[in-house]
């Protein structure tokens, strides 16, 4: 069942002065028509390969084979790569129970380790405790030149040599990067090429933060046994109204983008909070953070993404959300929770002074909390958009991911920036490499 979105609680007529006015929303939606035309044209001419991925299935069997071969008898799979080369995989892996707060460590093997951040203590600990004999490694970098990923890869190769596992490197390592381009150094390809490590191709036309539906995201998903075909099918659902030439008002991603841009332009809502009421969407909020920030933060424009998790962040950030500065648009994501999880014993509930808990489940409370948070924000005049996924599975996750990629591209069109580059981060990278050699 497709996701449902409602922006009723973000409208000025419902939440008051901090909501979007009908005129501003209408104007932004009218401008979004141009973005939808552009998306349809790129789908037609293949100019934005991301848009053709949902209908593509031919690449999935080899991807599954590579995943199964690598995961065979592995106790641990170490994913090396950062940002867009990691967050999509993490998001999908969480769907399979990996890195779920509190219980991720309980899931059956293989254990996945996403070494997304670079930290000397963490990496030293990884190499110290990892059973190298039964570990596998995947190094992912679109450019092949990201310092963090290269250092991680070099460190692992050295550790394997020290453990006398050098000859096994081609069997236990996989690389994923762009194909060699004349005149462009690809350090990762060169490095792994020395060891004859099998290389998967990173789609040249799909940037890292948009790569979750390519092998970058789907490889770890397949390793964990997720249905990658259903992920793509879910993405197709999100793109369907665009292809069906629906008006912007009937395309959820266009409505979300128009709302966000109109609120930023007319009501100074410079922060976009995405609060998900499901542990298995925690990594999704991080993925969304990179997608939104790196795609839109240009030329003094863009809004700042904040990820939040419910109900835990009710006990941390909600005070500020409700009563702090009026600079935010809220997106509350919920899923069907009623009747799920442990049921509360009546007697014990009475003793705890919560007779109302008796016979209810944890899911009943979380469901009520998601609803209550959205309503409380709105009652306090904060603009809220709600997104509801009946279930969190491969299809709904594919749909959610594609929804937000489309929303981001449409928002970029509305504010007049290029969604697909990130020129500002290059300066710091160059400087860091200079300091390293000084
Ligand atoms: O996949 P790569 O080329 O290693 O890049 C990793 C990340 O670094 C960035 O280029 C930013 O520095 C992101 O856009 C990207 O997701």
UniProtKB/TrEMBL annotation:
GO terms for molecular function: carbohydrate derivative binding; glucose-6-phosphate isomerase activity; monosaccharide binding. It is an enzyme of class 5 (isomerase). Pathway: Carbohydrate degradation; glycolysis; D-glyceraldehyde 3-phosphate and glycerone phosphate from D-glucose: step 2/4. Its EC number is 5.3.1.9. It comes from the Bacteria. Belongs to the GPI family. This is Glucose-6-phosphate isomerase. It comes from Undibacter mobilis. The lineage of its organism: Bacteria, Pseudomonadati, Pseudomonadota, Alphaproteobacteria, Hyphomicrobiales.
